[in-house]
């Protein structure tokens, strides 16, 4: 039986990827580097410093650690500025209703987001009250695909990983959930998430709550 649901943030609860894109794009333009939507897609679910590495590699650029830190910081300051504009339009359609329905069934809810800005985003979108536990990039040592972020969430909720389901839109996050011994639902398509045991695009149409919550329940 499923007793807890752990949600990634970007691409699962809301969409922040466009704001990440704009902030990285500004930084890249200022440096004279190439950056486009395809590269941006590769940054999904990846921590900030690792994202910068992807952009540097794409451009064949090497930098010293101090300069990297400086640029990652600059990008984040701009990202936070852009986040001031975020509102309910950025919510994944039906997510509030879905989480509310899970809560009504007694399912505990946690966030497992690589973003160090996740707490501020939840607040801005008035979602904080829906989460029983929040684990972000600030609380972990090893990023996804390591299962640490979701195992920590399960621990905070006091629920065994076997009784948890993870919702993820990035391959690294799907891997993290599976490594943690949890059920995983990919948010996307089989093409974008080939390793996800099941995928959904619509939280109402594609999910039957009874079926979802019984995953892992021994037959009879
Ligand atoms: C999110 C985004 C990533 C971003 C990462 C770190 O992860 O998907 O693109 O690079 O957070 O964000 P920040 O720079 O705010 O710490 P998730 O796990 O919520 O999908
Ligand atoms: Mg994500």
Automatic annotation (TrEMBL):
Q: Where does substrate bind?
A: 8-10, 24, 43-48, 51, 75, 113-117, 144
| Protein name as catalogued | Beta-phosphoglucomutase
Spell out the residues of the site Important for catalytic activity and assists the phosphoryl transfer reaction to Asp8 by balancing charge and orienting the reacting groups: 113, 144
Q: Which species?
A: Tichowtungia aerotolerans
Q: Which family does it belong to?
A: Belongs to the HAD-like hydrolase superfamily. CbbY/CbbZ/Gph/YieH family.
Query: Where is Mg(2+) bound in this sequence?
Result: 8, 10, 168-169
Q: Where is the active site?
A: 8, 10
């Amino acid at each position: 039986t499923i007793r807890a649901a752990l949600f990634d943030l970007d691409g699962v609860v809301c969409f922040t990827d466009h704001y990440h894109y704009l902030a990285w794009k500004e930084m890249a333009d200022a440096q004279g580097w190439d950056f486009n939507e395809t590269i941006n897609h590769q940054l999904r679910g990846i921590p900030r410093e690792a994202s910068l590495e992807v952009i540097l590699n794409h451009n064949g650029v090497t930098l010293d650690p101090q300069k990297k830190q400086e640029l990652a910081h600059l990008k984040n300051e701009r990202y936070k500025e852009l986040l001031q504009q975020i509102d309910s339009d950025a919510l994944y359609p039906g997510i509030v209703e879905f989480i509310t329905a899970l809560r009504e069934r007694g399912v505990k809810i946690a966030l497992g987001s690589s973003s160090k800005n996740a707490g501020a985003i939840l607040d801005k979108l008035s979602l904080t009250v829906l989460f029983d536990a929040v684990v972000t990039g600030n609380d972990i040592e090893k990023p996804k695909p390591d299962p640490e972020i979701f195992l920590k969430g399960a621990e905070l909720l006091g629920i065994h990983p076997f009784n948890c389901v993870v919702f993820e839109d990035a391959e690294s996050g799907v891997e993290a959930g599976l490594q943690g011994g949890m059920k995983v639902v990919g948010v996307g398509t089989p093409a974008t998430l080939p390793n996800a045991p099941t995928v959904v695009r619509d939280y109402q149409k594609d999910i039957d709550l009874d079926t979802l919550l019984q995953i892992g329940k021994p037959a009879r």
